[in-house]
């Protein structure tokens, strides 16, 4: 795509035209949540304006339209990720999706003596559910380490995959380091040893083509709001045999076939796991987001973000006293950094006054911060709608606020 194409694509995102503190907004927090194109916003508006009804309940026209729209979003997601629609459990996001695996798959299966393997770079959403399961089952947690570049040490990881290990759960892409893990190879090694694999796809799905079938995992979780969709949307993909064997996590309406006080017959997967009225409008919006990303082409988005990453890394490396955390050979457009003599929060606060939105903090990855011996980092994260001019302006603003703090 040419520079003009990218300018046109950026113009699809109304919010990116706004100002903050009298300065043009430079939004470098897409790893936290992505901005939404006008088509996504319009689809949510259109749903509430013209089609609003509950799903799977009413025979009237609006009920059918709402159900078609909701199920249509499931089919779009399935095509986007190369999986079957009836293997996608729609839910509020990665956090819910991983908890569903923890409570419905792991909790009834794990026993004292069993182990779960995680990695040092996991988000709290892929740590805490396993701790809760471990506490209740007597299973233990083992942690795979990373090298100085922030990459998984694969030999060390495979050495951890002993016969007591029942589950390996790891992130596809680190939200702090940007590291892209070779999940296909890792899942192959796990499968050889009879170990079930869960992948946290939160930071991969929005930034690169993801073919879940090709990865060969057992579970894949992702979140819609990072993929240009509405908040409160996401899904768990699971192999059919797991979904069939798993008990429901949350009970209520929609997830049943027949309810008697003597006992209840559950609906078929994936509906068995979707109790209650879902975020219908949200999934209509996520369907529109998938349409948007598909027409953009995830290869194009990835190539654009890699250019921005290269440019930003080059410029940041010229800033004296700036340390980048994470130098993986395969890396997504996420840059965590610290500047000598400046607190992460102070930098982010002063950058905000310049119109630059970056995140500062622990990024829901306390163990990783602990590993690096820092309480927090600054994180600039990019999406295809960012520009090279923004990279320059961000680094110029960083130099300016750094002088203020010195
Ligand atoms: N895992 C990773 C790697 C993430 O970056 C995030 C979002 N910051 C999550 C899990 C949790 O996603 P959500 O809050 O949408 O459930």
Secondary-structure topology with pairs:
Elements: H1 3-10, E1 19-20, E2 23-24, E3 26-27, H2 38-51, H3 61-81, E4 88-91, H4 94-106, E5 115-119, H5 128-137, E6 140-144, H6 154-160, E7 165-171, H7 183-192, E8 196-200, H8 212-215, E9 219-223, E10 234-238, H9 240-245, E11 256-260, E12 263-266, H10 280-296, H11 298-317, E13 322-325, E14 334-339, H12 344-353, E15 356-357, E16 359-361, H13 366-372, E17 377-381, H14 388-405
Parallel strand pairs: 3-15, 5-6, 5-7, 7-8, 8-9
Antiparallel strand pairs: 1-2, 4-10, 9-10, 11-12, 13-14, 14-17, 16-17
Bound molecules: 4'-deoxy-4'-aminopyridoxal-5'-phosphate
Strand coverage percent:
15-25%
Q: What is the CA-based Rg, rounded?
A: 22 Å
Mean pLDDT: 96
CATH architecture of the largest domain: 3-Layer(aba) Sandwich
Distance between the termini: 41 Å
- What's the CATH first level of the largest domain? Alpha Beta
Pairing-aware structural class of the strands and helices? alpha/beta
State the helix count: 14
CATH superfamily of the largest domain: Type I PLP-dependent aspartate aminotransferase-like (Major domain)
Largest sheet: 7 strands, mixed
Can you walk through the features of this model?
By secondary structure, the chain is of the alpha/beta class. It has two domains: about 5-30 and about 295-405, Alpha-Beta Complex (Aspartate Aminotransferase, domain 1), CATH 3.90.1150.10; about 40-295, Type I PLP-dependent aspartate aminotransferase-like (Major domain) (Aspartate Aminotransferase, domain 2, 3-Layer(aba) Sandwich), CATH 3.40.640.10. About 40% of the residues lie in helices and about 15% in strands. It has a seven-stranded mixed sheet, sandwiched between helices. Strands 13-14-17-16 form a four-stranded antiparallel sheet, covered by helices on one side. Strands 1-2 form a two-stranded antiparallel ribbon. Helix 2 packs antiparallel against helix 10 and helix 11 (about 300-315) packs parallel to helix 14. The chain is globular. The mean pLDDT is about 95. The structure holds 4'-deoxy-4'-aminopyridoxal-5'-phosphate (PMP). 4'-deoxy-4'-aminopyridoxal-5'-phosphate binds near residues 95, 123, 223 and 364.
């Amino acid at each position: 795509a040419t520079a003009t194409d990218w300018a046109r694509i950026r113009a699809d995102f109304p919010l990116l035209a706004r100002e903050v503190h009298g300065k043009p907004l430079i939004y470098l927090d897409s790893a936290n949540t992505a901005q939404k194109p006008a088509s996504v916003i319009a689809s949510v508006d259109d749903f509430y304006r013209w089609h609003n009804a509950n799903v799977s309940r009413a025979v009237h026209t609006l009920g059918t339209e709402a159900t078609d729209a909701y199920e249509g979003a499931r089919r779009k997601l399935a095509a986007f990720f190369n999986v079957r629609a009836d293997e996608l459990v729609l839910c509020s996001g990665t956090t819910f999706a991983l908890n569903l695996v923890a409570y419905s798959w792991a909790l009834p299966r794990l026993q004292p003596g069993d182990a779960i393997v995680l990695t040092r770079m996991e988000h709290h959403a892929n740590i805490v559910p396993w701790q809760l399961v471990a506490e209740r089952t007597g299973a233990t947690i083992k942690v795979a380490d990373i090298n100085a570049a922030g990459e998984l040490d694969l030999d060390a990881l495979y050495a951890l995959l002993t016969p007591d290990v029942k589950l390996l759960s790891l992130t596809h892409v680190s939200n702090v380091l940007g590291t892209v893990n070779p999940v296909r190879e890792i899942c192959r090694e796990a499968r050889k040893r009879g170990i079930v694999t869960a992948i946290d796809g939160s930071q991969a799905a929005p930034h690169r083509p993801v073919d879940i079938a090709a990865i060969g995992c057992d579970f894949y979780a992702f979140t819609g709001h990072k993929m240009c969709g509405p908040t409160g949307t996401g899904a768990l993909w699971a192999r059919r045999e797991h979904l069939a064997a798993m008990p429901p996590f949350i009970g209520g309406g929609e997830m049943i076939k027949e309810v008697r006080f003597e006992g209840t017959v559950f609906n078929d997967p994936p509906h068995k796991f979707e109790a209650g009225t879902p975020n219908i409008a949200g999934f209509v919006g996520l369907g529109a987001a998938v349409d948007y990303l598909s027409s953009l082409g995830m290869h194009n988005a990835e190539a654009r973000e890699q250019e921005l990453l290269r440019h930003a890394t080059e410029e940041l490396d010229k800033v004296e006293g700036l340390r980048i955390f994470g130098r993986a050979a395969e890396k997504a457009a996420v840059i965590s950094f610290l500047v000598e003599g400046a607190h992460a929060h102070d930098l982010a606060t002063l950058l905000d006054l310049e119109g630059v939105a970056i995140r500062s903090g622990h990024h829901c990855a306390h163990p990783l911060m602990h590993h690096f011996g820092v309480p927090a980092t600054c994180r600039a994260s990019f999406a295809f709608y960012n520009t090279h001019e923004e990279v320059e302006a961000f680094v110029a603003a960083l130099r300016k606020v750094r002088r203020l703090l010195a």
